[in-house]
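From the shared-data thread, chain only:
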Amino acid sequence: MSDVPHVGIGLPVYNGQKHIALALDSILAQSYENFELIVSDNASTDRTEEICRDYASRDRRIRYFRNPENLGAARNYNRVFELFTGGKYFRWHAHDDLIAPTNLEKCVRILEESPSASLAFPRRRYITWEEGRAIGSAWESVAGVSTEDGLAPGRPTNRLESFQNINFAAVLRLYGGWFPVFAFAMYPTELLRKTHLLGSFPGADRILVAELAMLGDFVEIPEELYFQRLHPASGWTMRKNLQEEAAWFDPRGRAPRHPKSSLYFKYLNAIHRSPIPLHEKLARYFDLANRLAEAGMNGIRRKVGLGPLGAYSRIETRMPTEAQTGHTP
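Structure, as C-alpha cells:
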C-alpha cells in the first residue's frame, strides 16, 4: 500500500465513555484502510482509558496516549497532530461524532484531484445525543430551510448561497455553527504544518480555518458523510459563557474583556504570520478592513431595525424535528 496516501486521524478525548466506542467503530469501518488513528486522552476520570486500550489491543492502527493532567482542549487537539508519525493527509475527529464508511476514501480522492486545495469537507447531518438518529441536514440552511444552531431553536444562522470558491473574505462572515464542518475536514499535512494549529482562546477554530483559507481552496464533497452529535455535554452546548469557553480551550485561560476586538486582532496576526506573498497579504488586510466596516454598519442597521449587509446574512428559522426528517445515518 506504499502508493496509497497515508492518512492520520487525531481523536482528542476527555471523559468520553458514552460515545467513544461508536466513534471508533465508525472510523474502523472505513473503506479506506491506510490510516493511523491517534487517540489522546486528556486525563479522563471515567472508562475512556479502558475502552481505548481495548480497541488499541485489537487494531494496530490505533495508538493510544494518556496525558498525566488535563491540558485543555486546544493543546490536546494539537497534541494528536504532533503525535502523527507522518503521512500525506490528516483530519481531526470528535470523540462523539460519526463518519460514513466512505468519508476517508472520498476526501482522499478529491484532494488527490485538487492540488490547490487546503481542505476537503463533506456535508454534515446532525444526530441526536442519545440514540444517534438524524434530526436534520445542516445543508438545508443553504436554502434557508432549517437552522444551523443545534439545540437552540430560533436563534439566527447564516444563509449561505454556496460553498463554491469559499475564501478568506467568506470565512470572516461565517457564523460560528459552520466551523465544525471545516474543523473536522481533511487537510494536506504539509499545509496544516504551515498554520499555528489551534490556539488556546475562544474562537481559535475560526483563526485556523482563516489560515487555511489563505493557503488554498476548500473543496466540497456534496454528500452527507459527517454526522455531528448534539448533546448536553458536547462542547457546542455545554459552555454557557465566555469564561467557560476560555477554560475549555485552556484550563488556565481567561475570557477576553472585548471578545470581538480580540478576535479581529487574531485575524490580523494570522495574516501577518501567513507564508503567503506580500500582495496576497495586502489583499487579506483589505478583506479584514472591509469586514470591520461592514460589522460597524450592521450594528447601526440593527439599531434602526434593518437586516445585516452581505450575502452571508443571518436568518431567523428553526431546526426540523425528527418527525419531519425521518433520516438515519
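Residues 21 and 51 are 7 Å apart (CA to CA).
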